[in-house]
Design brief:
This protein is mainly beta and 268 residues long. The protein folds into 2 domains: 3-59 and 216-262, Jelly Rolls, CATH 2.60.120; 60-215, Jelly Rolls, CATH 2.60.120. 3% of the residues lie in helices and 42% in strands. The longest helix has 5 residues, at 78-82. The radius of gyration is 19 Å and the shape is globular.
Length: 268
């Protein structure tokens, strides 16, 4: 069996795929998230049906901040949305309009082409989501496609919010882009590729999201043929990665992602 191997002193080892034998992979992109503490992963595909290759790409870790007062104060949702635990959810209940200071900011060390969203309690109020990015001078509309919209209501279902990666997207600190003096904004000076989400109408009083994971900048994925295994040391967290995006070129397959800590630190 062919394998790309990096030597590592592994600690606790466990699977990240939810289904024994690997999670189903199809031509629709899906994500397997890394657990907190992940420092090494192994990615393998099996049970190819029509598929020639399984395409994979790392998901950049997101800093995710919710504000109801234009960043004077924030709620840090980064771990809640990327901890691979559907029991921990981020509350977007009654998220209001930008005119009232309500935004969700997500930023990463690398550009990304969108986010995959797992909605738990759906919004049913008709409301349109807009996505802005920083172009080096001002916030500009990214013309996103909202796959979470259901009968006119954003966050009405699971789905991907995607955009064409802007050529003029610039890394910036929020203190520069928003001129915030909010001491609660930990990343106010960190130069990240930020987008901000805003809604046209206030959301339902009970809207929650289990995960919001970045999709890789490029769809020129790494390709796994049958029998190929990739072993990789990773940095899970800010400046690193949050999971693995996968899809097939055609047909279906199953993807297995196993993970380990390095040293003696264990998974939570």
């Amino acid at each position: 069996m062919a394998s790309d191997v990096l030597d590592a002193a592994l600690g606790e080892v466990r699977k990240l795929h939810a289904t024994a034998g690997g999670d189903a992979s199809s031509t629709t992109p899906a994500v397997i998230q890394f657990l907190p503490g992940t420092r090494w992963v192994s990615v393998e595909a099996r049970n190819y049906s029509t598929a020639v290759v399984v395409q994979v790409a790392p998901c950049p870790y997101l800093v995710a901040l919710k504000t109801t007062d234009s960043l004077a104060t924030v709620t840090d949702l980064s771990e809640t949305l990327q901890d691979a635990n559907t029991a921990t959810v981020a509350t977007l209940s009654s998220m209001d309009t930008a005119a009232n200071g309500h935004y969700v900011y997500v930023g990463s060390h690398a550009p990304f082409r969108g986010v995959l969203v797992d909605v738990v309690l759906t919004n049913s109020t008709v409301s349109v989501l807009s996505t802005d990015y920083w172009n080096g001078t001002t916030w500009a509309n990214a013309s996103s496609t909202d796959g979470t919209i259901n009968t006119g209501a954003t966050f009405g279902q699971d789905g991907a919010i995607t955009w064409t990666v802007p050529t003029d997207w610039a890394a910036v600190g929020l203190a520069t882009a928003v001129a915030t003096t909010g001491t609660a904004v930990r990343e106010r000076n960190a130069a990240l590729y930020w987008v901000r989400f805003k809604v046209s109408v206030q959301l339902d009083a009970s809207t929650t999201v289990a995960s919001l994971v970045a999709l890789a900048r490029s769809t020129a994925y790494y390709e796994l043929v049958a029998g190929r295994v990739v072993n990789q040391i990773v940095n899970r967290g800010p400046g690193g990665f949050a999971g693995v995006e996968h899809r097939t070129d055609a047909g279906t397959a199953n993807v297995l992602v196993n993970a380990a800590t390095l040293s003696r630190a264990g998974f939570p």
